[in-house]
Known about the structure:
Helix content of chain D: over 70%
Strand order of the largest sheet of chain A: 1-2
Number of strands of chain D: 4
Radius of gyration of chain D: 23 Å
CATH superfamily of the domain at 7-87 in chain A: NADH-ubiquinone/plastoquinone oxidoreductase chain 6, subunit NuoJ
Oligomer: heterotetramer
Shape of chain A: globular
Number of helices of chain D: 19
Largest sheet of chain A: 2 strands, antiparallel
Amino acid sequence: xxxxxxxxxxxxxxxxxxxxxxxxxxxxxxxxxxxxxxxxxxxxxxxxxxxxxxxxxxxxxxxxxxxxxxxxxxxxxxxxxxxxxxxxxxxxxxxxxxxxxxxxxxxxxxxxxxxxxxxxxxxxxxxxxxxxxxxxxxxxxxxxxxxxxxxxxxxxxxxxxxxxxxxxxxxxxxxxxxxxxxxxxxxxxx
Amino acid sequence: xxxxxxxxxxxxxxxxxxxxxxxxxxxxxxxxxxxxxxxxxxxxxxxxxxxxxxxxxxxxxxxxxxxxxxxxxxxxxxxxxxxxxxxxxxxxxxxxxxxx
Amino acid sequence: xxxxxxxxxxxxxxxxxxxxxxxxxxxxxxxxxxxxxxxxxxxxxxxxxxxxxxxxxxxxxxxxxxxxxxxxxxxxxxxxxxxxxxxxxxxxxxxxxxxxxxxxxxxxxxxxxxxxxxxxxxxxxxxxxxxxxxxxxxxxxxxxxxxxxxxxxxxxxxxxxxxxxxxxxxxxxxxxxxxxxxxxxxxxxxxxxxxxxxxxxxxxxxxxxxxxxxxxxxxxxxxxxxxxxxxxxxxxxxxxxxxxxxxxxxxxxxxxxxxxxxxxxxxxxxxxxxxxxxxxxxxxxxxxxxxxxxxxxxxxxxxxxxxxxxxxxxxxxxxxxxxxxxxxxxxxxxxxxxxxxxxxxxxxxxxxxxxxxxxxxxxxxxxxxxxxxxxxxxxxxxxxxxxxxxxxxxxxxxxxxxxxxxxxxxxxxxxxxxxxxxxxxxxxxxxxxxxxxxxxxxxxxxxxxxxxxxxxxxxxxxxxxxxxxxxxxxxxxxxxxxxxxxxxxxxxxxxxxxxxxxxxxxxxxxxxxxxxxxxxxxxxxxxxxxxxxxxxxxxxxxxxxxxxxxxxxxxxxxxxxxxxxxxxxxxxxxxxxxxxxxxxxxxxxxxxxxxxxxxxxxxxxxxxxxxxxxxxxxxxxxxxxxxxxxxxxxxxxxxxxxxxxxxxxxxxxxxxxxxxxxxxxxxxxxxxxxxxxxxxxxxxxxxxxxxxxxxxxx
Amino acid sequence: xxxxxxxxxxxxxxxxxxxxxxxxxxxxxxxxxxxxxxxxxxxxxxxxxxxxxxxxxxxxxxxxxxxxxxxxxxxxxxxxxxxxxxxxxxxxxxxxxxxxxxxxxxxxxxxxxxxxxxxxxxxxxxxxxxxxxxxxxxxxxxxxxxxxxxxxxxxxxxxxxxxxxxxxxxxxxxxxxxxxxxxxxxxxxxxxxxxxxxxxxxxxxxxxxxxxxxxxxxxxxxxxxxxxxxxxxxxxxxxxxxxxxxxxxxxxxxxxxxxxxxxxxxxxxxxxxxxxxxxxxxxxxxxxxxxxxxxxxxxxxxxxxxxxxxxxxxxxxxxxxxxxxxxxxxxxxxxxxxxxxxxxxxxxxxxxxxxxxxxxxxxxxxxxxxxxxxxxxxxxxxxxxxxxxxxxxxxxxxxxxxxxxxxxxxxxxxxxxxxxxxxxxxxxxxxxxxxxxxxxxxxxxxxxxxxxxxxxxxxxxxxxxxxxxxxxxxxxxxxxxxxxxxxxxxxxxxxxxxxxxxxxxxxxxxxxxxxxxxxxxxxxxxxxxxxxxxxxx
Lengths: 190, 100, 698, 537
């Protein structure tokens, strides 16, 4: 039992890592979009747990809320909306280039891994205090991020909000019945 | 001892899985999901480095990435709906109107 | 910044153009505008950069030593024991150099090359988009190879260009590959060139064996430092083998047969490759490796004799040809002979001088003939031309200027170079060079005869084509027109150069100022100076020199006068016909080019093919027959094949098959997902970049 | 011996076999799509996994790296010994690349018994890689034989009309060779261990072992007579594989009858087994015999070069032409190797890769038109550059690579081989260089007859140009051709330790260098090695 206690962090990490990868593979291999989406959701939650391990509590929470809550619901909603089953039956779920593409992906992965091995490896770890500290006072991760986000990164923050707005408008335009090929005057100001 | 390398490698694996997903799946929806997977891999990387370097910038950047990912998901799913209306399919390779 | 540190950019620009036109423009069928812009940009940048680099080099560097830059390490072949028992590493770098000789060559090759690119824009406009792109890809590729050839600083890099121009020549001759004879001509050119390359390769090996280096400067230094004549044998072997290469590339006897056939290619190609640049590569190479020849009287004499004989031999064939391009082709062979003749008497500078002036006027002539053929709707037979002067005046005047230049009339470009060749050859005889004075006198007289013949057949060409009445029929006459400006502008520029181009090499010694001969002074450091025996330095007196000049002018004049009588005054060519009737054998002999092609076809080509067939028979019957004796074993083992068919394979593989009913991948070929294809290519690209990173860094 | 990353080598070697077994058990015969995808993924992943070898190999490290070792048959001293040097790594990379390409190129060419076909291809790959990895004679021999079986079936089941004849010929030929090789191996083994009592030769009395690195160390002690006999046994085994004149007649038949992928593997990798054997075994193990054999093998090689080229010229069948050109090219490799000097050996090793790339690509290209027209006769074609421009371009590039145009791979190899051969004897170089002219002649003649001229044959007018998949099977090879042609240094760096060590071992027996010329450069070029000229014709 000692082993479990002493190496708790490692064991936790490896468990989470394996589960994350398993979830990712699930996204790849499940034929049904619903299953894939659930697998993806699972991955998101595992990644969120990994965030917690890395002392990024706020990010963990945001991950669960935005991805797990928002984006995932959006996905499932769209899947239901287009009702995949009623569409023309899918004869193949892999694209024609699949073998080559897999090779390409693995190749790139191996090469990057090599870059890692031959480059400077990022060993060591911080203790996370700095992630809770602003101006010498230890105030917690959420506050710290808030403090930085609304001061140093204020301008990017604002720009991103505009991006979100534009995306929203775009999504609405696409979603309208008359969307696509026959936009006549409409859509511009909605 | 688990150090940043482990996280980076995990993130690399996740990223490649997403990348392969983007390239091999025909279903547009799953392709988008794979894309989300890649975003997640990037976030993991950012946060791992933020932890390693004790720098909040990584986390802030991750927040931006999440925001952009949300925007991307919204647009992408909108596109899917448009595609379904237009062609009655979610297969990505059917979307070839622009083909030369 | 030293521009000439990046002299390898000069060949690189056209290469990029070739890659774009070959793989993008040709594949996608891009518009002609795009294609020609890229091609002209490639050739133009090479021209501008080449001139800029050379000029900068001219003013900043020492001209007596080659300025060499290494682009990258190419071959690392390990160590080899060489002559004298020492060890040398076969390390060959992709290195490039600037020295006076390279500078001159870069100067005119990039310039003439660009002009001919420009001309091609007009000439090839009728081709379909893809063929147009293909044409310019080849042309740019040729520029790359030629510029590599002249800027390379060691024998292997020169060889890269050497083979490269051969390849482009093959591709461009066979450009209209649907026509069997074009394809055959291309193949012939390549294979004949390969025979020459065979000698070249052996020369490289010998050079490495003796000197342990293949860098030109290193070889030069080794030869210059050899005062005891230790390398005489080496010089003879290497010199002769290199000359085999030069014979192939520069179409000398006995390997000249490919050049006339090479006229099957588009006319600008004939101008660029088969007149101005590629075929002069042999001369360039002999001049570049002059130190071997300087050391070896045998090699020098061989070069001179082959050059001199070819000069007259080809000229005689040119006398009776009726195809306008064939005449020019034989004229080129003949002029190349003159260049080798000059090289063979040790006047390498003069040879290069003639290369330059020849490039101007011969390119002008070919382009002019292209213009004529263009106007006549593809007709090349001079008997169906005539009177074109009034339809295409620009072409006529430029053509005339170039013709006067090639005939060697003062003060046109050809006069200076050709006259200097004659003078040098005469001087070689006079000075009893290498104690072969008699032979050189003989060669000189051949060269004078050649001058008469040259003037004759060139003016015959002009008279038949441009003067008299048009003989091509009403229909064709209707279509006669002057060519567009992209074609006439190069003609005019080259025409002007045919007039003034000779002034870089005025015979300054006549008035006691040898330094007035700019090209001579400039190129002097390239040549290794040697004492050649005989009463060296014995120059003919001034009076004799002037007499020689007068004689060569008279020879040219005589040729022109004959042509005038036979083909200008006598509009119907009756006299010429009568002459042919009186000497039927001689006429047929010349018309059929001495039946050399037929001779080669009957002996070497047929012999090889017969031998191949014979060996194939032997292979199938004798060697394999012995093996087939063992086939009886097969009969014994027929049970094997029996079991074989009884699904050994299936049984093996399917043993466990059915128990497992795992849902497996459905995979069917549907339409390709393009976006994903792009993504895949992107990923491959990223992987490639990383790979390159590793290759470079590890 | 360096055992770091030893697992990687085992993984690469056995992955195809494991994948093949999985396919046998988990994929239904009818599910052709899944079979193809799975086979391609296995071969592709195997290729990707083999790439680290390229980077991880250390040129300054031990002779054999990535080694792994286990006891096997302890009673005779055979062990499981894996390990590679730079030379083997280059060949392994070639194998995995061509393995992937041959799988990928078979997608439409093979239309019956797909599962067995891909299973055999993958098994073949394990066999070939095992040969390159083995450092123990028994293991080596096992893989050597294992490799034969799938190839036999590939030719015999999926081949052309005379497939059985060709398959059995191939099988018998190589079997004879390998049996003789086994005799040689045993002779060496017994000499090292106890002695050869039958012929009254006392042995060295060492611990019995089949370990090749260990036997390297006793090589100088083997008496020359014994070396001669062992060399002869090895020679027959390897010369058949190469194939050297006059053992070459199985090759055209096997090539012509084999399916395209089979030809690619056969030309690309199987032929290299012979040359690999020479470099790995004959040269370092039997230096005395090697040096004595030089004139004979040199002459045979030159005959092969000229003879192969001339016979290729007489062929009417495209595949046969390429097959005979292989004979000629392999002659170059043998010539360079037996010049027994640095550049020659380097050139030979590089030319092994080049031949794999160029000839492999040529077979692929011929296979592509064969698939469309089911005809390989040259006279059936003509003018198809008009309808298949991309195909014509690829074919031209590969042709140029095959005839050794500078900036493409063939030139580097041939140049070094010739300069090496020249240093041994200039007469060798003279005759061998004529192979270059002949090479240009037959390849360009082929090109002219197939691609140029009028598009006379009606059936050719509707030929489709290459599709994306077919292009992707050729592009990697073209890329390699340019890479080797323009920047071969990384390849030379990797083969250098091997070359140095082989030269070191051979030089024990090398006489004082006699280069044919009397040194100093002031003497006559004539010299004593004239007899070769008779054979050269």
